[in-house]
Amino acid sequence: MKLCLVLLALVGCVCAFSVPTQKVKIADKDFLEKQKFLFEMVYRVEDPLMFEEWIKMGQKLIVDKAQYKEFDFYMEKFWESYKLGALLPKGEFFGSLVKTHHKQAYGLFNFFYYANDWETFVHNVAWARIHVNEGMFVYALTLAVIHKPEFEGLILPQIYEIFPQYFFNSKFVYEAEKFDYEVFSKLIMYEKEYKDILYKDVSEFSDNFYFYTKDWKTWQWYKMMGLDQEWYVEDKYFLRENLETFNKDPKYVDIMKGLKKFYMPVDYTRDIDFFNAESKLSYFTEDLGWNAYWYYLNMDYAFFLNGKEFGLDKDRRGEWWIYNVQQILARYYQERLANGYGDIPEFFWYKQIEYGYDPQLIYYNGVGYSYRKNYYDYQTYGNFEMFNQIQNFFSRVYKVLETGFYKTADGVVIDLRKPEAIKFIGNYLQGNVDTYDKYFFNYFYMLSHMYFADVDFYDFEVFPNVFLNFETMMRDPFFYTFYKKFTDVFYQFKYYLKPYTQKDLVYEGIKIKDVSVSKLVTYYDIVDFDVTTLLNDKMTFVDGEFVWDKALLARQARLNHKPFDFEFTIDSDKVQKGVVRVFLGPKFDEYGRVIPLVYNSKNFVQIDSFVYPFVAGSNTIKRSSKEFSWTAEDRTTYTELYKYVMLATEGKYDFPLDISEPHSAFPDRLVLPKGWESGMPMQFYFFVSPYTADYEQFSNFDYTYSSGVGSGTRYVDSKPFGYPFDRQIDEYTFFVPNGYFKDVKIFFVDTFAKYFEKKYAQFGTFDYSYFEF
């Protein structure tokens, strides 16, 4: 909704001085027609296509090679598979990391991506929507919309709005699919009087009732308000952190008129059969924004897309990918500390996995996701060939790092003692197509996920498993254990690089005198997620146009924080530009011991970076968490976006191309770990370095509505990601005037405590004042 939100996905981006002001572009009729088409293609994608216009367009796949920029091997194989009836059937589980599924998805993506014109693209998408497996269709379409240059500005709903089944437990999904408006409206009419009496009686229960409720996890807020996991009428608004931005917009109020809204409280996974301590963190590992971030990272930099053709090598794809893995593990470790846990468990090839996991998810075909019991032994699979391939990959990489160079099959020697060699290590670890020695390293990444999901090389119809799709794998605590193997390789590479000297780090003429930080407060807030695609209801059409008159919402508690501010006092001896980086890291381990910086550097998460034009003398810089350069607040929902498009199509609304927040941005509300009620000790590190960019940021794309994937100009400078924590720390040389540590505490406020301190007067109804504290 705001221009600055579009910039948030761009790491290192800042509006302070270097970004020219650009007028937000308004969508024309042609753009709106395209956007409407995309929204309608993914509506209730597991159901038959109901839009007559697109059904007519989808009668055949265009296979005339003249209609494509390129017609490659994967397209040929896809078409042959369709003719032979060998495509993955509709309704079957699709895993983007199942080798047999991937090859078909690659061919379908190419039919979308290489289409010469919009008409060919529409024919192919409509055909695929009717004939192709639903998961494969959404995967290929998402990639095409992100990467096809002509589609800049076009968007799809968030993945958790297209496939809520990947993000919400099966109990909720069943209830949503059974929802019937006609039956529901009669039910609430008959039960109103009964429920009023029931709630009054319940509110008179003894304090023991409330104490018992408190024994449940804090995010089961609905029990404290006297609600159950059933459907309720929402007659106010969608709950979200930035709801005031929407509610003050008269056009927004306009489009929401007449929309019937229903919400149902939803819980996170609760491992009762296989209970273990890790389930305490499910509010974090199953957070929709957390999982969607990883999904879109792997869509932006898909492992099978050629770096040169798609420009991904210009974005330092390998380095960026492994850096994100390291940052995800660091952020997860911080959340573990906030809950009293220590290091992420190590993965050993011949040791049992202590913590089991039952995702409690159900695929849209009704098949439940497979689970893992406590103390599970992966080597008992018996698939020793695949097991050995994965194990040998890590052995080979470690051996290469010890040697210091790698000689490819065609004789190219790569020096692994140079900092820029990180791109080779990153490419190897992601297993992407830019890997120099494809014979030895390609596809290992896919095989490792197949192995842990018990999928063989040529399996086609497989059981649903969270490890086979990017949008579900971070739910499982084992993800962090296994991916620690990746960062171990990353740190091993960094170990052989010399630590920065004081001369490398010091910024002559710059000194950070002080940084004040406002109080850091976290809490659980409650939000509505749009799950209307689960609605099992007849679609209404008037004059051929779809009438979106109902919305289903999943109402869930999730971690958030109050906005906070920095105030920098920085001295400069002259006028100069500098890059300010902000990191957040722990101070103590789970036993209260100070973590030495040499070990702790890997636990710092970069939460902001920006350019600032320093003047000679003292500089006072104020910066809010709302301005952070890579985060976004709650996104515009699928329901709202479609209604905006329809209003704009009628000429009653100017549809801005930056209406939706960037798909690749990190959730602003997860910047801080949960903290403690007594205050969790943490530390900020602030660092200023010279601005030495060898390119002009945003020079080759329109930052008002594009994230610039593949542009090569996304980042504020060309420093290594994580600088200056990107190498081993020498504490004798690390402390420089342009660096500054600040001890802070993060305070958690229990927003639900008031329901225990005294009885909730409106027991049985939702409390819209829950967030007032």
TrEMBL record:
This protein's record includes keyword Cell cycle: no
List all membrane-crossing ranges. none
InterPro entries the record matches: Di-copper_centre_dom_sf, Hemocyanin/hexamerin, Hemocyanin/hexamerin_mid_dom, Hemocyanin_C, Hemocyanin_C_sf, Hemocyanin_N, Hemocyanin_N_sf, Ig_E-set
Q: Which GO terms describe its biological process?
A: energy homeostasis
Which residue intervals define the domain Hemocyanin N-terminal in the entry?
31-152
Note the SUPFAM superfamilies from the entry: Di-copper centre-containing domain, E set domains, Hemocyanin, N-terminal domain
Annotated ranges, domain Hemocyanin C-terminal: 499-748
What's one GO-annotated cellular component?
larval serum protein complex
Keywords, in A-Z order: Secreted, Signal, Storage protein
Q: Which domain of life is it from?
A: Eukaryota
List, in alphabetical order, the Gene Ontology terms for molecular function in this entry: nutrient reservoir activity
Pfam families listed in its UniProt record: Hemocyanin_C (PF03723), Hemocyanin_M (PF00372), Hemocyanin_N (PF03722)
Q: Which PANTHER family match?
A: FAT-BODY PROTEIN 1-RELATED (PTHR11511:SF5), LARVAL STORAGE PROTEIN/PHENOLOXIDASE (PTHR11511)
| Family note | Belongs to the hemocyanin family.
What is the stated purpose of this protein?
Larval storage protein (LSP) which may serve as a store of amino acids for synthesis of adult proteins.
Question: What is the recorded name of this protein?
Answer: Larval serum protein 1 gamma chain
